[in-house]
Automatic annotation (TrEMBL):
SUPFAM superfamilies hit by this protein: AF0104/ALDC/Ptd012-like
Highest taxon above the source species: Bacteria
Protein's name in the database: PPC domain-containing protein
One Pfam short name: PCC
InterPro entries found in the cross-reference section: DNA_bp_PD1, PPC_dom
Domain PPC residue range list: 4-140
């Protein structure tokens, strides 16, 4: 992944073979005590997304190993006192233009990926929500 930073924005270009979440974790390690809002596009060929099933109380994963277009990547990355978290949602299109998406678990770049990260110098962290048992942003931090 190649990056350039200007003020509070980081522009990233992911290369063939880069796994999005792995690369973002490496990047987050270089920006302590920051929260970043992420948006992006690109092309992938090994993708796993999941949807939270409230009836099963778990994430249900789906994997695609075909060439797909990353139509939209949204979420956040944070480095709260060395604790790194990446939370992304994504939408992909197949060659037949059918669309699928969900919580991004894994995505390997097949051609290129282009991301913008808007940084906010704040430490939030995550905490377990008592009702849903999910790890949510800790706005009280």
């Amino acid at each position: 992944m190649q990056t350039v930073q200007k003020d509070q924005q980081i522009i990233c270009r992911l290369e063939v073979g880069d796994e999005i979440i792995t690369e973002l974790k490496y990047l987050a390690a270089t920006i302590p005590d920051q929260f970043g809002a992420i948006s992006g596009i690109g092309a992938c060929d090994d993708v796993t997304v999941s949807i939270y099933s409230t009836s099963r109380d778990e994430y249900v994963a789906t994997r695609s190993q075909e060439q797909v277009e990353l139509l939209s990547l949204n979420g956040n990355v944070e480095n709260a006192a060395g604790k790194i978290a990446v939370h992304l949602h994504s939408t992909f299109a197949r060659l037949d233009t059918s669309v699928f998406g969900g919580h991004l678990e894994r995505a390997v770049i097949s051609r290129t990926g282009e991301l913008v990260i808007d940084l906010v110098p704040v430490v939030l962290g995550r905490t377990e929500d008592h009702q849903t048992k999910l790890q949510v942003l800790d706005i009280q931090s």
